[in-house]
């Protein structure tokens, strides 16, 4: 497969990239607004005003429509919709997941997408829902593999997506991703995740994304199907997703729901609009509530798009600045289930560390999850390479008397120990913590100190600590080092 994806900036597993398509280059991460030709609150040609570079529509709806089928074939998809940028088409797998069947074959729908000029087409995969039996998940995955392989023969010059399925079985997702990547596609959507997001099952969503990424190559552009709420975009980007699609901007608007990065409000509950987009700057909540239903839905859809693309711009700037993790932590504290997703993400820190840039602008301690960040893991892994011998002092007080010691190490929460030579380097020299030592940071730091001592058995250690570090973990350190309370 030709390489159509160029990565320009990275932070965590997130990246800014260029996706090359027949109708232009798209900067990722980005959201593709979903266009339903039968229900358009905003015309496709207007989407660029809000920040959209690329759209997605459902080829099965067009295929089955007496109104749209012939128009798409004769005019081409782009002319029919009035949009000159890249357009991706789904195959009808969503309808398959809802209704149990569709009136089209895999070969027919792939050929139709090719014939109407789709930039990126999708085979008719089997979207296995969460929580089914392992046997069913495996059986349906084999059908998906077969259809993906067959789709290549009918795609022509159209770019082709290879969906990764596997239900809520992390090992199966990773296996599926590896096999789909071996077959070779242009884009790799992670399918059947909408039920997880609708139920706020972000912990399991993190597993799906992380394990799928572990099976894919690092050059694979990843599309998280059905994800477009601004509150979860930072988390998904940090895990390595590049493309998203959103019908929420329109569906929520028709239901009177107002998107923000902290969650969703019902317009009827708002007295003030907590946003400065053009819609919110020129209307009051009362005006929106009292206006005609169709006009209100249109304006809410506009707001929902504005806030979504504003969040994407902030995410991209955070990647460039190297502080995507700080943004993820802030966003995930807006909802307990998102916080569960963040905690689960930290379980993959050792994997993330392999791809995370070694130097950044700053490290901000924002809570217990910061103790397990990739930078902390990397710091302690590199310390294992140090040759440490003789009499060694580890102290929490930089003014402590070090007379008689061969080497001295200082302590920085939540990292653990560091030599003076690293005091000005990243992350030690650029880390900011709260003024009062939190119990979680203290315990994580002491565990890292204990690991350092146990990993360097040729040295005789003394750990000198101040009152704020007093806790039961000191007794674990005392098994391998002399401890002194200052």
Automatic annotation (TrEMBL):
In its UniProt record, a GO molecular function of this protein is:
zinc ion binding
Q: Does the keyword Nucleotide-binding apply?
A: no
Residues bound to substrate are 125, 192
The entry's active site is 90 (nucleophile)
Q: tRNA-guanine(15) transglycosylase-like domain: from which residue to which, for each copy?
A: 14-336
Q: Which UniProt keywords apply?
A: Glycosyltransferase, Metal-binding, Transferase, tRNA processing, Zinc
- Residue sites binding Zn(2+) per the record: 275, 277, 280
Q: What is its EC number?
A: 2.4.2.48
The pathway where this protein functions is: tRNA modification; archaeosine-tRNA biosynthesis
Q: Does the keyword Membrane apply?
A: no
Kindly state which reaction or reactions the protein catalyses. guanosine(15) in tRNA + 7-cyano-7-carbaguanine = 7-cyano-7-carbaguanosine(15) in tRNA + guanine
How cofactor binds (record note)? Binds 1 zinc ion per subunit.
List the GO biological process terms: tRNA wobble guanine modification
Which cofactors does it use? Zn(2+)
GO CC, any one term: cytoplasm
The Swiss-Prot or TrEMBL record describes its family as follows: Belongs to the archaeosine tRNA-ribosyltransferase family.
Role according to the record: Exchanges the guanine residue with 7-cyano-7-deazaguanine (preQ0) at position 15 in the dihydrouridine loop (D-loop) of archaeal tRNAs.
What is this protein's name? tRNA-guanine(15) transglycosylase
Organism field: Methanocella conradii (strain DSM 24694 / JCM 17849 / CGMCC 1.5162 / HZ254)
Q: Give the gene that encodes this protein.
A: tgtA
């Amino acid at each position: 497969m030709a390489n159509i994806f160029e990565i320009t900036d990275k932070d965590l597993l997130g990246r800014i990239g260029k996706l090359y398509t027949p109708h232009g280059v798209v900067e990722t991460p980005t959201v593709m607004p979903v266009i339903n030709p039968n229900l358009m609150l905003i015309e496709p040609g207007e989407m660029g005003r809000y920040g959209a570079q690329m759209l997605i529509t459902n080829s099965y709806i067009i295929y089955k429509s007496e109104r749209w089928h012939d128009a798409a074939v004769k005019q081409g998809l782009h002319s029919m919709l009035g949009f000159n940028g890249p357009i991706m088409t789904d195959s009808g797998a969503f309808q398959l997941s809802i209704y149990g069947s569709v009136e089209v074959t895999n070969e027919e729908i792939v050929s139709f997408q090719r014939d109407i000029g789709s930039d990126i087409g999708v085979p008719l995969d089997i979207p296995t829902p969460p929580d089914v039996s392992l046997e069913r998940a495996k059986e349906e995955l084999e059908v998906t593999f077969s259809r993906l392989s067959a789709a290549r023969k009918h795609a022509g010059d159209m770019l082709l997506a290879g969906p990764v399925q596997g239900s809520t079985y992390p090992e199966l997702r990773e296996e599926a991703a590896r096999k789909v990547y071996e077959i070779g596609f242009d884009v790799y959507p992670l399918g059947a995740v909408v039920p997880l997001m609708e139920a706020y099952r972000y912990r399991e969503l993190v597993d799906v994304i992380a394990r799928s990424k572990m099976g894919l190559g690092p050059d694979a552009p990843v599309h998280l199907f059905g994800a477009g709420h601004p509150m979860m975009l930072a988390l998904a980007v940090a895990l390595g997703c590049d493309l998203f699609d959103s019908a929420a901007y329109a569906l929520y608007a028709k239901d009177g729901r107002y998107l923000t990065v902290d969650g969703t409000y019902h317009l009827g509950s708002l007295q003030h609009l907590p946003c400065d987009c053009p819609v919110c700057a020129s209307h009051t909540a009362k005006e929106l509530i009292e206006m005609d239903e169709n006009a209100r839905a249109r304006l809410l859809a506009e707001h929902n798009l504005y806030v979504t693309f504003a969040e994407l711009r902030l995410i991209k700037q955070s990647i460039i600045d190297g502080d995507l993790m700080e943004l993820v932590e802030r966003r995930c504290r807006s909802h307990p289930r998102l916080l569960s997703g963040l905690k689960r993400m930290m379980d993959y820190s050792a994997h993330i560390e392999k791809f995370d840039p070694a130097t950044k602008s700053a490290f901000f301690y924002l809570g217990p999850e910061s103790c397990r960040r990739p930078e902390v893991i990397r710091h302690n892994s590199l310390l294992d390479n140090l040759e440490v011998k003789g009499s060694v002092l580890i102290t929490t007080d930089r003014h402590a008397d070090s007379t008689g010691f061969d080497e001295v190490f200082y302590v920085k929460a939540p990292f653990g120990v560091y030599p003076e030579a690293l005091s000005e380097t990243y992350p030690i020299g650029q880390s900011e913590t709260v003024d009062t030592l939190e119990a979680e940071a203290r315990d994580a730091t002491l565990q890292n100190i204990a690991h350092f001592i146990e990993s360097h058995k040729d040295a005789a250690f003394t750990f000198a600590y101040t009152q704020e570090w007093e806790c039961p973990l000191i007794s674990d350190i005392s098994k391998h080092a002399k401890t002194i309370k200052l």
